[in-house]
What we know:
By secondary structure, this protein is of the alpha+beta class. It has helices spanning 3-13, 67-70, 73-81, 102-111, 166-169, 200-216, 221-236, 244-256, 261-275, and strands spanning 18-22, 26-27, 84-87, 94-99, 116-119, 124-129, 135-139, 142-145, 151-152, 162-163. Strands 4, 5, 6, 7, 8 and 10 form a six-stranded mixed β-sheet that branches. A four-stranded antiparallel β-sheet has the order 2-1-3-9. β5 (116-119) and β6 (124-129) form a beta hairpin.
Amino acid sequence: MSAHLHTALSLAAHGVPALPLRAGKVPFGNCPACAKNACGGRPNMKTPGPCTCPHPCHGWAAATTDPNIVNSPTWTRAWREAAGVAYHPGGASLTVVDLDNAEAIAWARTSLPATRAVQTTRGEHWLYQGAMQSANAVRPGIDIKSSMQYARWLGPGTGAMTALPDVVRALTAAKPAAPALTAVTVPAPDGGGECRHRTPAFLERGIAMAEQRITAASSGVHNAVYATFLAVLSTHGRCGCLTEDHITRLFTAAQTKGETARHCTDAWDNARTRLGL
C-alpha cells in the first residue's frame, strides 16, 4: 500500500473526504464515465455534493470518506501515480485560512483567533471548525478553502482547533467599492538630457510595463509604486519626453490599487529628489 493511499484511508476513517493529487497540486482529470458531466453530477461543480462515480474526477467533489472507493482498483492506480493527498475541508466541516507568506501570517496573528496551524511550503494553513464559502485573494496572500474547494493534506498540525469566527467569515464579504480616483497634476520633468528612446514605441512600452508592474503588486503596494516611479524617472526623466499624460497613467494605476493621491505625489517627488531631477 502506498503512503498516499494509507494517508487517504486514515483521513476517510476520521470523516475527512480525501482525493489524490497529481504533481503540481492538480487533481486527476475526469474519468470517462463522467466526461462532460455524463454521470449526471454537478455541472461545472458550482453546487455542493459529492461525485457519485467511484473514480478520481471532478476535483474537490471526488473527495470521499468511503474506504471502498478510496481503495477501489481505479483509485489504487491513481494513488500509484499521485504526488500528494488533498481533502475537502467543507466536507469535514472545516475551513482553511491559507496564509501564503510572512506578511499574511503576521496579519493573522494580530487579527484572527489562534487555532490549529499546519506548516506549508511558503506559509501556514490555519484550520477552524466550521464550513463557509471559499474565496481566493480575500487579502494579500490569503485564500479561504472550505466548501467546494480542496486543500493539500500536510499533516494534522499543532494547537487546539477553534470554532470558525465571524472575522473569518467576513473576509469573503463583498469588497467595498474602490474610492473615486483623484485628478492629480504633476509637472513633467524639464528634461535637457540625451534622449535614449530612439522611437516613441520605447517610451510607450516602458510606461505600459510600469502600469503592469503596479497593477500586479499583490502586497507591499506602497513600495512597488515608489520603485516603479523611480525606475520610470531614471530611464525617461531627464530627456523631456515624459509627459503629464504619462504621469497621469502611472498615478491612475497606483490609485486603482488603493493608493491615495497624496501618497502618489509624495512617491513621485521622493523619486525625483533621489535622482536629482
